[in-house]
Amino acid sequence: MSLLCPADNQLSRFSVYMCDGPPAGSWSRHDEQGSAMGWSRRVAALVSGTLLSGCVATGTALAAPGPKLEVETFGGGWARPGELADLSLVGAARGLKDVTATSSAFSGAVTFKWSDNDGGYDAVATVAMSDQPGVYPLVAKIGGRVVAREQIRVKPSERPSFAVQALFDTAARPGEQIDTEFNDLFPGETGTDFTVRSTALAEPVRLVHDNQLAHFTPRSFTGQPYLRPDVKDGTYPFDLYGPDGRRIAEKSLTVRAARPGDSDYLGKARGPAFSPTFDPDTAREHGYRVRAGGRVYVLWKDSYPDPGEENSLSATSPAFTQPVNLRRDDTKAADGDDPRYYAMATVRTGLTTGTYPVTVVAHHGRVKRTGRLIVTGRPVAKRSDTTGPGTGWLGASGGLLVLTALGVYVVRRRRHTPA
To answer: What's this model's pTM, rounded to 2 decimal places?
Structure first.
């Protein structure tokens, strides 16, 4: 072996000594008999100098890295019996034939296919259901020749499991989705028709296998049903039924509507407000008057109504002949505004003059707002009385805009009026 220094392209003294021995006459007889230790020190010094000078071996060429075998499984490097394992062979040229992977963890050899997306060879292998826990050797071959090695780590099988939980970090909320999952990747389990039933759901939900979300676990069945919007706070059972209609398992889920102070509570309700016609610009929350036996529109706004409230809001009052259901305003006039709701109520006849409460309950009982309606025993003016600027839905800023526009109009009219 010789060492070639890239700096001066000359053989080092160390290579000459190692290959040819010391130069003639360079050692005395005394050196030959008693300086073995000195020779060792010279060699060590020369080796150190060679390494520090950046010399490289010319007799042994650096081998190019060969193909690399990679394994991906679901459980952090450990796979359950029956799960899938993604295999990748990178660093091999395209167009090769007979590219396979074999392991005693598999029931047979697995054939790789070229992937343009990954720039290598990919394969999917199934860990045998009969595998015992342990580490199994894995080899990749090209044309029958081993080119890379890896391992398959197998953990024990797990009994079938059923889970029901909120889809997000918060508690399960009325009208929102939840997550249901059944995993029966266990020896002897069969069938694919699984259904979840609960009084908290509008209807039974069928669980299905999702190849994208549960690629590694072929016997994972999931569903994301919606809870009923009108479901009350409480704990509800969820029953899992198998292909034969037999109940397999049961889980419980606590449902609780979000309340002010909860991180996911976004409600911002306004109202109730009152108007002789469905006109949010003239609606008033205070000081509205209506005669006994008359009619009044009740209006309600909410920046973030709960799911399903379009069909559950109502306004009640001892002044009304009956509770009225508020319905969502889906007209063009509502575009760009917070969701708003309205209903026309009839005031009872024979009421004495006075103030009567009107109550709207929203967000599944968590928000309760009460307005005051003044009922008179005599006819009232067409335009209802108010308590002054800022009491209606336009508020002080809205009233200011109206007054400003009116002032501009008066000034312009004066400028164009002949003297």
So the answer is: 0.60
